[in-house]
Design a protein that fits this description.
Shape: globular
Largest sheet: 5 strands, mixed
Strand order of the largest sheet: 4-3-5-13-8
Structural class: alpha/beta
Radius of gyration: 21 Å
Distance between the termini: 11 Å
């Protein structure tokens, strides 16, 4: 991707549909009161403050961990265990939960960063937000911390915290979508998406994330990429969303609803609505993330009656997955960056990542975790998951990603809900994406 200048980049963020707003130079100065004095690097993020690993063991006071709604319970348990371990040091942590929607979580964080608020020391940041937050100088540079552990992580997960040659966080949880299916209703996942939908139409259908939010961008791109489509040109300057390949994928999704393969209600579903529908026995297939596996095994109606499989091929194309997950980033305005580093070290330690995987079926970012017998027992699909994460494609890396994603999910949702024809939806998305790209 070609990026011209800091000023132009900030203009793009100011004008994006996400409402990133008109930040002035003073706003982007960064640096909470406890941040390391060293300013790092050159390029767009020159002058960002650097997290100081040495300050972690002497840190005291409190740390606030901002995250989305903890539906699995993994974050709550980890913070509880941290407080027990760090009590003698005089350090405590608490969780501040944001709304379930990823877009709402992003806005909550942005509001605090614009205000230079130190309320969030750490943020559980979606992998697609790194470029935007780093470009605004809202995050501490964690390059030295990450480089000391690089060999522990799956390489694709490290790419999600990298921007302008620096690492702005530590991978906490990765993700690659899977197809869940009722093993008491179908013997196996058919070989193609087309066959899946045909089988779904004969049974109780398929549910996925079809509401107008980030989850739909992921769901759509999984099919569009499998069909051979792209979002941006190789140089990142132009949109290529309006293509025959992308139209084939969108037409397939729209027809799937019209023909009864997918529930009409999917146009309002996020992850949790899809999960609850599947757990209630109202669907034969479900597209969702690995976290739903552990929860499904606690649901009375489907416990022992479902399995998980990698995605099938898109007829005439191939297979594709989208890399998801979250990273732990430190706010440039944190009042306790040393405590934040200490908490991140605890949350990303091998034992914590193993617990997240074995107990909560959260996809590990650490390579060794996939070989652990307890994890393999808890996640029978661990080998497939590791391969999926290693091979998954990233969403477009651009500081105006939010505007790009909004153009995709709003127009795709309009096509799925019958408000627009698929071709018209992609034409509109193309115009909106080009407009956003043209501002930087």
């Amino acid at each position: 991707m070609h990026v011209r200048s800091v000023a132009a980049l900030l203009a793009a963020l100011a004008l994006s549909a996400a409402g990133c707003g008109g930040s002035d130079d003073k706003e982007k100065s960064g640096g909470g009161s406890g941040a390391a004095a060293t300013e790092t690097g050159s390029g767009e993020t020159a002058g960002v403050k650097e997290a100081d690993a040495a300050s972690a063991d002497s840190a005291k006071g409190s740390v606030t961990y901002c995250t989305g709604k903890d539906t699995s319970g993994a974050q709550i348990e980890s913070v509880k265990l941290f407080n027990e371990a760090a009590k003698a040091q005089g350090l405590t942590a608490k969780i501040l939960e944001f709304p379930e929607s990823a877009d709402a979580q992003r806005e909550q964080f942005i509001q605090r960063q614009r205000a230079k608020s130190g309320e969030c020391d750490i943020f559980y940041s979606d992998v697609v937000w790194t470029a935007e937050f780093a470009a605004q100088k809202w995050l501490l540079d964690m390059t030295k911390i990450v480089e000391g552990r690089k060999d522990e992580f799956i390489p694709s997960t490290l790419e999600t915290v990298k921007y302008d040659g620096k690492y702005f966080g530590v991978p906490k949880q990765t993700d690659a979508g899977f197809l869940y299916y009722r093993s008491d209703k179908v013997d196996a996942v058919p070989a193609t998406w087309q066959a899946v939908y045909a089988e779904a139409a004969k049974t109780d259908g398929i549910v996925y994330q079809g509401a107008p939010y980030e989850g739909l961008t992921v769901n759509y791109l999984e099919l569009a990429f499998a069909a051979g489509g792209k979002v941006l040109s190789d140089d990142g300057k132009k949109s290529e969303i309006d293509s025959p390949e992308n139209l084939k994928a969108l037409q397939f999704m729209a027809d799937g609803i019209k023909q009864g393969g997918a529930k009409k209600s999917v146009t309002t579903y996020m992850e949790e609505q899809a999960r609850r529908s599947f757990e209630a026995g109202r669907a034969t297939f479900m597209r969702n993330w690995p976290y739903a596996f552990a929860l499904g095994n606690k649901a009375k109606k489907i416990k022992g009656k479902f399995k998980v499989a990698p995605y099938p091929e898109f007829e005439g194309g191939g297979k594709a997955g989208i890399l998801g997950g979250h990273n732990l980033v430190i706010s440039a305005f944190s009042k306790n960056p040393g405590g934040a580093v200490k908490l991140i070290d605890f949350l990303t330690a091998p034992e914590a990542i193993k617990r997240d995987a074995a107990k909560y079926s959260l996809a590990p970012t650490l390579l060794a975790t996939y070989d652990d017998p307890e994890v393999q027992k808890a996640l029978p699909f661990a080998a497939d998951l590791k391969q999926a994460v290693e091979q998954a494609k990233s969403r477009p890396v651009t500081p105006v990603y939010n505007a790009v994603s909004q153009a995709i999910y709003k127009n795709v949702n309009a096509a799925l809900s019958g408000q627009m024809e698929p071709k018209a939806a992609l034409e509109k998305a193309q115009t909106e994406i080009d407009k956003a790209l043209g501002t930087f």
